[in-house]
From TrEMBL:
<dbReference type="InterPro" id="IPR050102">
    <property type="entry name" value="tRNA_sulfurtransferase_ThiI"/>
</dbReference>
<feature type="domain" description="THUMP">
    <location>
        <begin position="68"/>
        <end position="174"/>
    </location>
</feature>
<keyword id="KW-0820">tRNA-binding</keyword>
<feature type="binding site">
    <location>
        <position position="274"/>
    </location>
    <ligand>
        <name>ATP</name>
    </ligand>
</feature>
<dbReference type="GO" id="GO:0052837">
    <property type="term" value="P:thiazole biosynthetic process"/>
</dbReference>
<feature type="binding site">
    <location>
        <begin position="192"/>
        <end position="193"/>
    </location>
    <ligand>
        <name>ATP</name>
    </ligand>
</feature>
<keyword id="KW-0808">Transferase</keyword>
<dbReference type="Pfam" id="PF22025">
    <property type="entry name" value="ThiI_fer"/>
</dbReference>
<dbReference type="GO" id="GO:0002937">
    <property type="term" value="P:tRNA 4-thiouridine biosynthesis"/>
</dbReference>
<dbReference type="Pfam" id="PF02926">
    <property type="entry name" value="THUMP"/>
</dbReference>
<keyword id="KW-0694">RNA-binding</keyword>
<dbReference type="GO" id="GO:0009228">
    <property type="term" value="P:thiamine biosynthetic process"/>
</dbReference>
<comment type="function">
    <text>Catalyzes the ATP-dependent transfer of a sulfur to tRNA to produce 4-thiouridine in position 8 of tRNAs, which functions as a near-UV photosensor. Also catalyzes the transfer of sulfur to the sulfur carrier protein ThiS, forming ThiS-thiocarboxylate. This is a step in the synthesis of thiazole, in the thiamine biosynthesis pathway. The sulfur is donated as persulfide by IscS.</text>
</comment>
<feature type="binding site">
    <location>
        <position position="305"/>
    </location>
    <ligand>
        <name>ATP</name>
    </ligand>
</feature>
<keyword id="KW-0067">ATP-binding</keyword>
<feature type="binding site">
    <location>
        <begin position="217"/>
        <end position="218"/>
    </location>
    <ligand>
        <name>ATP</name>
    </ligand>
</feature>
<protein>
    <recommendedName>
        <fullName>Probable tRNA sulfurtransferase</fullName>
        <ecNumber>2.8.1.4</ecNumber>
    </recommendedName>
</protein>
Length: 398
């Protein structure tokens, strides 16, 4: 396709909830710009704020493939609801019309004569046509050229035209962004990251609400293989696309698990272990200035996640424990894991450290006093701080 009338490609971003932030909006927008810059560090882009829209300008002569790659990459940044590949054309109604004709020429919607609409906005009132006039002009030309039916209430193809100060932006249907708030605008958290399906989705959900997260994985090493570590690493790498600069710490947990088993309370072992994980995580969080823990718990999913057992875990630490999947069905979690690209990693085989302690008949309502007794024998707080000393760091430079 030759881009004769289309001008230069760029990328336009429509923001979501940030727009509702009133006086704090500027802070959120700054954070978003910094996050966009980090995500697009391999590209040359110039980020410009245009009335509630963020425009990403590319160097003159940039090809459409690069613009598409930028659009795809930036659609992983939280705080954006829609991403449009757009064209910058001259502020001249006849140029805009020609460009619109070319813009839609090869689309499947035109091929099947799908209903369409033109939506114009005139930000610069010096432009000779009002937006309704521009709609009619361009819409009429598209209708005549391609025989498309107009449908203003439910179009399958929308041609959007934004008349700005220096140029006109032209674009069709965009791709959805992730929504949410810019990572970092809600502070820091630490995700307890297994190799399973749930915790990566929990991490994604909290990042989407603006929490910058680091990751802590408990490995059964030296009594298990390191497969679960590779999985955790691969999962964090995938999730890093959504925030950048992620850190993964691995706790060698096998010996501590052995001590828990030695306490002889098989039915309580999983909950006792979970409390020790939480205590260790709280210590790591304190050292790295995270103010919340995040887990993939979902009410009733497994025996350690009955309401009573969740309550028994809650009291192990003072930090808030965020459980974004608490009210989700497993099938919903799985479909989200598929969408965000973690499912195929989670489904790889591994030797989960938790299987070391699983009981045939696990307690469904663990009592705090029983757990405290085990913890006194273990000296759990001291053990948690030793475990926090023993973590190994994995840095991700994506
Ligand atoms: P997941 O799919 O996230 O492993 P799950 O349904 O298997 O969850 P559990 O194994 O009971 O549930 O774990 C509940 C939560 O405890 C996990 O979502 C995770 O946050 C944390 N967790 C469990 N095992 C580990 C581990 N080895 N390292 C770090 N966190 C863990
Ligand atoms: Mg698990």
């Amino acid at each position: 396709m030759t881009m004769t009338a289309l001008g230069e490609p760029c990328v336009l971003l429509k923001l979501g909830e940030i727009i509702l932030k009133g006086k704090n909006r500027e802070v959120f927008e700054q954070r978003l710009r910094a996050n966009i810059k980090l995500a697009l560090k391999d590209y040359q882009v110039d980020i410009r704020q245009r009335h509630g829209v963020v425009a990403l300008f590319l160097p003159e002569g940039t090809g459409v493939e690069v613009a598409e790659a930028v659009a795809a990459r930036v659609s992983e940044v939280f705080g954006i609801v829609l991403v449009h590949l757009a064209w910058r054309v001259d502020k001249d109604p006849s140029v805009v019309t020609k460009a619109a004709l070319e813009l839609v020429a090869d689309t499947p919607e035109v091929a099947r004569k799908a209903p369409f609409a033109v939506r114009s906005r005139r930000r610069d009132k010096r432009f000779p046509l009002r937006s309704s006039e521009l709609d009619r002009l361009v819409g009429g030309e598209l209708h005549d050229a391609y025989g498309l039916p107009v449908n203003l209430s439910n179009p399958e193809l929308t041609v959007s035209i934004e008349v700005d100060r220096d140029e006109v932006f032209l674009y069709t249907n965009g791709r959805p962004g992730q929504g949410g708030l810019p990572v970092g605008s809600s502070g820091r958290g630490l995700v307890l990251m297994s190799g399973g399906i749930d915790s990566p989705v929990a991490a994604y959900r909290m990042m989407r609400r603006g929490l910058r997260v680091d990751f802590l994985h408990f490995s059964g090493i030296p009594f298990t293989t390191s497969e679960s570590i590779y999985k955790a690493y691969a999962l964090v790498r995938r999730l890093d696309a959504f925030q950048g600069r992620s850190r993964l710490w691995v706790v060698p947990f096998g010996k501590a698990q052995q001590s828990i088993r030695a306490s002889g309370q098989d039915r309580l072992a999983v909950i006792a272990q979970r409390r020790l994980m939480l205590k260790t995580a709280a210590e790591v969080a304190r050292r790295h200035k995270a103010s919340a823990l995040v887990t993939g718990d979902s009410l009733g999913q497994v025996s350690s996640q009955t309401m009573a057992n969740i309550a028994a875990q809650e009291s192990a630490v003072d930090l808030p424990i965020l459980r974004p999947l608490i009210g989700m069905d497993k099938l919903e979690v799985i479909s989200e894991a598929r969408r965000i690209g973690t499912l195929e990693i989670s489904e790889l085989p591994d030797e989960d450290c938790c299987t070391l302690l699983s009981a045939r008949n696990p307690e469904l309502a663990a009592k705090i006093e029983d757990l405290k007794l085990i913890e006194r024998r273990l000296d759990a707080d001291e053990l948690a701080s030793q475990l926090a000393d023993s973590i190994q760091a994995y840095k991700l430079d994506s």
